[in-house]
Design a protein that fits this description.
The protein has 135 residues and is mainly alpha-helical. The protein is built from two helices and no strands. α1 runs antiparallel to α2 (54-125). It is rod-shaped, with a radius of gyration of 35 Å.
Length: 135
């Protein structure tokens, strides 16, 4: 668990965030097209109300069918955006957890190093234990 894993998790988080931004842009463009198709269908409805012609009804139904397809695509892109946001947040959270684990590991290495130093110093200064011979 070094800095590479934290960096990789952050890069993955940024990648998901970029994907979510792309999905948002695509969904927004499709929703604008859907609003335009809705305005066009409304204009065709008012045209039908004035003329009472069956051809304008067919054109209106075709426009609403197009709008439905466009809005379905926009909703798919919105779901992709939400999934990208959730994945970016989760990978960012995992990067933070990996960072904390690395910090803990570094602190444990420092603590074990401090424990070894006094033992080494005492063994060097004190004479080795020699068994005494009793008479």
């Amino acid at each position: 668990m070094g800095t590479r894993s934290v960096t990789a998790a952050l890069c993955i988080s940024l990648l998901f965030a970029g994907g979510a931004a792309f999905c948002y842009a695509r969904a927004e463009a499709l929703q604008a097209e859907g609003r335009w198709l809705m305005a066009r269908g409304s204009a065709q409805a008012s045209d039908f109300a004035q003329k009472l012609d069956g051809t304008s009804v067919d054109a209106q139904l075709k426009t609403f069918k197009e709008r439905r397809g466009v809005m379905e695509q926009a909703h798919r892109w919105q779901r992709g955006m939400l999934l990208g946001i959730m994945a970016a947040v989760l990978s960012g959270l995992s990067a933070y957890v990996l960072f904390l684990l690395k910090r803990l590991d570094d602190q444990l290495l420092d603590a074990t190093g401090e424990l070894r130093r006094p033992q080494e110093a005492s063994s060097l200064s004190a004479p080795a234990f020699a068994p005494s011979v009793q008479r």
